């Protein structure tokens, strides 16, 4: 039922189209972590045009990778994706592996990403559980308004719901994700258009409210994340190492600015030259 709904309701996302290989899927999954689709799509297109294979990305410098990452946020992901590309070249001859356990051994690849690449990149039936999927399962199976913390039974819950046919099981994994993103959303779900509303445990229970603590909304303004982004903006735009006064202009609070610069140095996103200037990492 969810698979049939997906056939008519799915968004036309480029990494879901026929012919997309596992490398393109891996890039999309890393970029989509905590980042909206609308922001990812243009960067993903540019990235795959520039680095269409792991070998191409492995040959790039960290500075090039950070610049290409642009404003996606959490730029450490860019370096980790490059590290994954290097590992694919060195360990697997430049071909993204298809086995979940082998994928999990790559930098930037956790359990979710490994299962997503195996499923969407290689057509292997896998339970792929993200926040949207967990919310669907919480309501449909357990009658809860919100998913709460991750549960050891999440993968088993999805496996139990998946159809037995291989091709439909693969489609089911992305279909449940799409259902959570478009219909079974947090806050105000669109139950009237849900394809499984008649069997949804939460709906049948009268849609009881969430009993746990309210979800915390992450702020951005004034946070260290914003300051780090401002500092990286200066370095991305520069064609040579930047003197400290140029970074001082990026943020007024000297204590916070210094803390954020130190964290960028620790994360390997920034390097300091022998003469005290700062630059994106070159190697």
Tags for this model:
single chain, 283 residues, mainly alpha, Endonuclease III, domain 1, Endonuclease Iii, domain 2, Arc Repressor Mutant, subunit A, two-stranded antiparallel ribbon, 15 helices
Write the layout of secondary structure elements.
Elements: H1 2-9, H2 22-31, H3 37-50, H4 54-58, H5 62-69, H6 76-92, H7 100-104, H8 111-122, H9 131-140, H10 154-161, H11 166-182, H12 201-204, H13 224-237, H14 244-248, H15 254-266, E1 271-272, E2 278-279
Antiparallel strand pairs: 1-2
What does this structure look like?
The chain has 283 residues and is mainly alpha-helical. The protein has 3 domains: 121 residues, Hypothetical protein, domain 2 (Endonuclease III, domain 1), CATH 1.10.340; 74 residues, Endonuclease Iii, domain 2 (Orthogonal Bundle), CATH 1.10.1670; 56 residues, Arc Repressor Mutant, subunit A, CATH 1.10.10. It has a two-stranded antiparallel sheet with strand order 1-2. Helix 9 packs across helix 11. It is globular.
* Shape assignment: globular
CA radius of gyration is: 21 Å
CATH architecture of the largest domain: Orthogonal Bundle
Secondary-structure element order, N to C: HHHHHHHHHHHHHHHEE
Q: Whole-number average pLDDT?
A: 94
Q: Strand order, biggest sheet? A: 1-2
* CATH fold-level label of the largest domain: Endonuclease III, domain 1
Number of strands: 2
Tally of individual helices:
15
């Amino acid at each position: 039922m969810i698979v049939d709904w997906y056939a008519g309701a799915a968004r036309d996302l480029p990494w879901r189209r026929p012919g997309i290989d596992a490398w393109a899927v891996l890039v999309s999954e890393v970029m989509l972590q905590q980042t909206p689709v609308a922001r990812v799509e243009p960067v993903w297109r540019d990235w795959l045009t520039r680095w269409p294979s792991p070998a191409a990305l492995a040959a790039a410098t960290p500075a090039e990778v950070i610049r290409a990452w642009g404003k996606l946020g959490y730029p450490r992901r860019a370096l980790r994706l490059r590290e994954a590309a290097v590992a694919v070249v060195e360990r697997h001859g430049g071909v993204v592996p298809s086995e979940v356990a082998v994928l999990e051994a790559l930098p930037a690849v956790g359990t979710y990403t490994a299962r997503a690449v195996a499923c969407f990149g290689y057509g292997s039936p896998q339970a792929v559980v993200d926040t949207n999927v967990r919310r669907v399962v919480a309501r449909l199976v357990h009658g809860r308004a919100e998913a709460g913390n991750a549960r050891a039974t999440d993968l088993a819950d999805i496996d139990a719901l998946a159809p037995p046919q291989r091709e439909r099981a693969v489609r089911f994994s992305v279909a449940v994700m799409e259902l959570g993103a478009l219909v079974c959303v947090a806050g105000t779900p669109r139950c009237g258009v849900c394809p499984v509303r008649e069997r949804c445990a939460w709906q049948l229970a009268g849609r009881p409210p969430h009993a746990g603590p309210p979800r915390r909304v992450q702020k951005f303004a004034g946070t260290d994340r914003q300051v780090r982004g401002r500092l990286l903006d200066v370095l991305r735009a520069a064609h040579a190492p930047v003197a400290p006064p140029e970074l001082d202009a990026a943020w007024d609070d000297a204590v916070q600015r210094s803390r954020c610069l130190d964290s960028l140095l620790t994360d390997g996103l920034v390097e300091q030259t022998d003469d005290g200037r700062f630059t994106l990492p070159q190697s």
